[in-house]
Write a structure and sequence with these properties.
Number of helices: 7
Structural class: alpha/beta
Shape: globular
Radius of gyration: 20 Å
Largest sheet: 8 strands, mixed
Distance between the termini: 46 Å
Order of helices and strands: EHEEEEHEEHEHEEEEEEHEEEHH
């Protein structure tokens, strides 16, 4: 990534900066990957993607990294994780190679695909035993949370960024059983005064979700939630508040929730461009993701070391069976 640094006379707002001539300027290059990181293309059975890992035999803590409705293979966070010592698997599930073209083409989403990816990563000689971590953002959190609760003996840590506590938008299935989901209504898409598309009320209210759609987060081993309180994509705060009520009622202590005032939906690694609006293929328009520039950047700076510490502590740390974990709830 090429970044231009410029020095201007006085204090100028963003508008004035567009035409002001700088006193001096230079360019720097930021990279998402340290030299020496290995990249392994994955084509095993039906799973696809790329693994980014440190040089050498390991074993390294294994993490599966997933994004949401944009699809394709998104590599930057996996590359950063590998640069911090993890074997990180950037896992696409649509819009890549021979996978379904659109997320709506995957009906139902078979969790076996993600279990197969988990088993494949854990089987690699360079991956530490004791459980895989999974990191999801937006719709990817629905998949990640389902993985952490449907086969918790394989997933030792789950990071939920701007996520949900229910199976939302699309149906899933696991072992031949359909999993109900929280519905949506396209007529609730709105256009803001600035011409942006708002998906905030796209989903049905949380209280209308079928009981079986609620993700049983109490079954997960370790959970970390990041919540932007100005998220305009969907009602993240309501969803994670609902998750917290459930976990508290069940006496669970397997989770941490970090809330950020003024922060929007796309909480990404720090010191990169902040994305408050962007084109979104599914809506065929520019989406308002929410957040204010300064507060969102502060959230990105704060969340990244916490994410790394959480994964380092809990990935590969499984020493307790799923049955005994359940008995402590």
């Amino acid at each position: 990534m090429q970044i231009t640094l410029s020095v201007h006379k006085g204090h100028l707002d963003i508008s004035a900066l567009q035409t002001d001539v700088p006193i001096a300027k230079t360019q720097i290059q930021k990279t998402y990957m340290r030299p020496g990181v290995d990249i392994i293309k994955v084509r095993s059975g039906r799973v696809r993607g790329k693994v980014f890992k440190p040089k050498g035999p390991g074993p390294f803590k294994g993490v599966i990294d997933m994004f949401g409705g944009s699809g394709g293979l998104i590599e930057f966070r996996a590359a950063l994780l590998a640069s911090r010592g993890f074997a990180a698997y950037a896992l696409p599930y649509f819009g890549y190679e021979d996978l379904p073209d659109m997320v709506t083409d995957m009906e139902p989403h078979e969790l076996e695909y993600f279990e197969e990816a988990t088993d494949w990563l854990q089987s690699q000689s360079y991956v530490q035993s004791g459980g895989i971590g999974v990191c999801g953002v937006s719709y990817g959190t629905v998949v990640a949370s389902r993985m952490a609760t449907e086969f918790p003996e394989k997933i030792s840590a789950c990071v939920n960024i701007s996520g949900n506590c229910v199976n939302a938008t699309l149906p899933m299935s696991y072992k031949g059983k359909a999993i109900p989901y929280l519905g949506f209504d396209y007529s609730r898409l709105k256009t803001t005064e600035g011409g942006l598309i708002s998906t905030y009320d796209f989903l049905d209210p949380l209280e209308t979700a079928p009981a079986e759609a609620i993700i049983e987060l109490e079954k997960a081993q370790h959970l970390l939630f990041f919540v932007g309180l100005d998220d305009k994509n969907w009602h993240t705060q309501d969803f994670i508040d609902g998750a917290e009520r459930r976990l508290k009622a069940l006496g669970c202590n397997n989770y941490e929730i970090v809330r950020y005032p003024g922060c929007g939906h796309l909480i990404e690694p720090p010191y990169a461009p902040v994305t408050l609006v962007s084109y979104y293929k599914l809506a065929d328009g520019v989406i308002d993701w929410g957040g204010s520039l300064r507060e969102h950047q502060r959230a990105q700076e704060h969340h990244w070391p916490k994410l790394l510490q959480f994964l380092d502590k809990h990935v590969g740390s499984q020493t307790t069976s799923h049955q005994s974990l359940q008995s402590n709830l």
